[in-house]
Amino acid sequence: MIIDALTHILPPYFNEHRDEALARDRTFAELFADPKARIAQAEHLLEEMDRSEVERSVIAGFGWTDQDLAKRSNDYLLESATRHPDILIPLCSVNPLWPGDDAPKEAERCLNFGARGIGELHADTQGWGDPPYDRLDDVMSVAREYVDSRNKIAFVVIHGSEPLGHTYPGKGAMTPDRLLQLATRFPDNSFIFSHFGGGLPFYERMPEVSKALSNVAYDSAAAPFLYDTNIYDTIESLVGSTRIFFASDFPLMTQRRALDHLRSAELPLYTQKMILEVAGQVYDFSRSPKNQT
């Protein structure tokens, strides 16, 4: 089985009202200012999955700043997963800095309607990138208190930023030191740090860092844009294959391209299989999303 642990789809509204969304939401503007940046819907992802022979995909929005756009996106993800419950695995996204209890209420609503986690969150555009991270307490509490049918809490997916290398839209500054502080601040939450956590696994050779990150896994989203194929063997040697989730970041790139990158690494077949399937051990496939009311 092949499970893509991070893809992004949005409702047609974002195609039809792109300029309005660019003006309203900082994260959307950061990622989609280029008119060539692709916006995909569920049917595009399903076609890509057929071409790439991917059995299941985790579907997410982005780290929204505008509440209305966030709700539109979250509802679309939940509805898409309801239509394809054996194929699509929904996340939901909120901004922890929304006023009052708006963020935890939206997160709780989405989890109750079938979301399997919270994310992807973008600290820089959402405005919470600087520690301390007390402002995230309420959202993290919702994620901890949610328990699925296998007695597992909801994952929180965070965009990670490389402190070196080339710049790109949405790169941000959520670098390994900040991600470490976030994981340390919330040791009872479960995290997935995207893009290999901006290189955070390299520091897990330090015993105190490895201990602090026992609640963290990493995904390989957009890896072909960032690293050569040796990255998989390197990260696997540092944290093990059970903490690496294959992810494409579709539609930023095709799932086929991401898979080809992983397969070119010439990993042992067992290791490759584990990376492709391990998301299935943390997302509860037995729990179908509920119908919206």
Task: Describe the secondary structure blueprint for this structure.
Layout: E1 3-8, H1 13-16, H2 18-24, H3 26-32, H4 42-52, E2 56-60, H5 67-83, E3 88-90, H6 102-112, E4 117-121, H7 123-126, H8 137-145, E5 155-158, H9 176-185, E6 190-193, H10 194-197, H11 207-212, E7 216-219, H12 223-226, H13 230-239, E8 244-245, H14 255-263, H15 269-277
Parallel strand pairs: 1-2, 2-3, 4-5, 5-6, 6-7, 7-8
Major sheet description: 5 strands, parallel
* Distance from first to last alpha carbon: 33 Å
Order of helices and strands: EHHHHEHEHEHHEHEHHEHHEHH
Bin the strand percentage: 5-15%
Strand order within the widest sheet? Answer: 4-5-6-7-8
The low-pLDDT segments are none
The number of helical segments is 15
**Inertia-based shape:** globular
Helix/strand-derived class? alpha/beta
Task: Give the mean pLDDT.
Answer: 94
Helicity level, as a percent range?
40-55%
Number of strands: 8
Radius of gyration: 17 Å
